[in-house]
Design a protein that fits this description.
Blueprint: E1 7-15, H1 22-31, E2 36-41, E3 45-50, H2 62-67, H3 70-85, E4 98-104, H4 109-120, H5 133-137, H6 141-150, E5 156-160, H7 165-178, E6 184-191, H8 197-206, E7 231-232, E8 234-242, H9 243-248, E9 255-264, H10 274-287, E10 297-299, H11 306-320, E11 328-330, H12 333-336, H13 343-351, H14 354-357, E12 359-360, E13 384-385, E14 391-398, E15 402-409
Parallel strand pairs: 3-7, 4-5, 4-6, 10-11, 10-14
Antiparallel strand pairs: 1-8, 1-9, 2-3, 6-8, 9-15, 12-13, 14-15
Helix pairs in contact: 3-6, 7-13, 10-11
Length: about 400
């Protein structure tokens, strides 16, 4: 993108299972700190999961936390941190020109399951059912909670894009800026998934839930001994602005968005389609006006399932086919598990510092690369200093066959 269509990142707010700030998250990716631990899940016993430890009371009182949703609290924390990081303030002059676009996999399930469990102890008497149920479970809840908390009066909604939602939220924010609908976009993804029994049971019944005596070793994308997904919560919201507006206020700029794409498999609700994934990557590269040789780093979506990881690498091989320089490849889920709707946004944040320091964080728990997942330049075991990273391709693929790819580049 060029000219008036240049969109830049000027703020980041996040919470991940292994860090509650951009700097802490990055430091722990470079020093091998995992955010996975065992939790007790209703009806299932002990399961590994990624749980965040952010202080929700920093931006909410206890009553609002209790009456709202976990996804809403995550979104509120991330949005406030991002706005502060960008050096912005919500005022009467700008509150109507700020939009909030939050990608989600699902939300409200946590609260609904808890409410059903609670009334079961009272013989299912609905007088014990909370009157907060409806606002908790409407599709726009996390984004709406942000606007109420911060007094933002511009548009808000959630983008339901399964595990492609983090990238999709950013893409939506970018598009709203290009259309002139907003001047500031608060966008990215959030997930509250570890609070819900249903998602664990669903993956368990598919044979896709990770198991390991050591929870830190449970999430192992691309590894020969991987056996499923570690479900995690988290969030990452960005501040996007038009370059001209960011320059006008002398904002710091993390990166520029160079290209993006979304498409659909249209083949299966669960099994990925490697041709459509490859097509999505190719479309994003073309929109950025680049070739694959122009990409320095690719963050894989790989979740730790046997078939899903191998299919994604097959898609990547199609994109990498032919002569030319090969990008570095890494994965973030070994550290934090699969943060579902937040995955793409969080994983991008973990790699953005590479544009400044040239260091690529490694994959975690990649002890023995599965031959079915073998591809050149996978960074494993230790952080890799490079001669410089100027472009990052971030992949996120989701259930019911939705794919999203985002390309960012070093701002110059």
């Amino acid at each position: 993108m060029s000219g008036d269509h240049r969109i830049v990142i000027t703020g980041i707010g996040l919470t991940a299972p292994n860090g509650n700030t951009y700097e802490e998250f990055r430091r722990h990716l470079l020093t091998g700190v995992s955010g996975i631990r065992n939790i007790e899940m209703r009806y299932m016993g002990t399961v590994p999961a990624g749980i965040c430890t952010f202080d929700a009371t920093r931006y909410q009182n206890r009553r609002d936390i209790r009456n709202g949703t976990r996804a809403g609290s995550i979104a509120i924390f991330c949005a406030n941190e991002a706005v502060k990081d960008a050096g912005l303030a919500v005022t009467d002059a700008n509150r109507g020109r700020i939009g909030v676009f939050v990608g989600t996999t699902e939300h409200g399930n946590v609260e609904t399951e808890n409410e059903i469990y609670n009334i079961s102890r009272f013989n299912y008497d609905i007088k014990y059912w909370t009157h907060h149920h409806n606002p908790r479970t409407v599709a726009n809840n996390p984004a709406g909670e942000v606007t109420i908390n911060m007094g933002i009066t511009g548009p808000h909604y959630c983008i339901g894009a399964a595990c492609a939602a983090g990238n999709a939220g950013i893409i939506q924010g970018l598009q709203q800026l290009l259309l002139g609908e907003v001047d500031v976009a608060v966008c990215g993804g959030v997930s509250e998934s570890p609070g819900t029994f249903g998602i664990f049971a669903g993956f368990k019944s598919q044979g896709a839930l990770a198991e390991n005596p050591d929870p830190v070793r449970a999430s192992r994308p691309l590894d020969r001994d991987r056996n499923g997904i570690v479900i995690s919560e988290g969030g990452c919201l960005y501040i996007l602005e038009r370059l001209a507006d960011a320059r006008k206020r002398n904002a710091k700029i993390y990166a520029e968005i160079a290209g993006y794409a979304m498409n659909s498999d249209a083949t299966n609700a669960v099994l990925p389609n490697e041709e459509r994934q490859a097509q999505c990557m190719t479309m994003a590269i073309a929109r950025a006006g680049m070739n694959i040789a122009d990409i320095d780093l690719i963050n894989t979506h790989a979740t730790g399932t046997k078939m899903g990881d191998a299919q994604e690498i097959n898609a990547l091989r199609q994109v990498l086919a032919g002569p030319g320089r090969r990008p570095y490849i890494n994965n973030t889920k070994g550290f934090i598990g699969h943060a579902m709707g937040a995955a793409g946004a969080l994983e991008l944040a973990g790699n953005l510092p590479s544009l400044c320091d040239g260091i690529v964080h490694p994959c975690m728990n990649l002890d023995c690369l599965d031959p079915d997942c073998a591809v050149d330049n996978i960074v494993a075991e230790e952080p890799l200093p490079t001669a410089g990273i100027r472009t990052i391709l971030n992949t996120s693929f989701g259930m019911v066959g939705i794919n999203s790819v985002l390309i960012v580049k070093k701002y110059e």
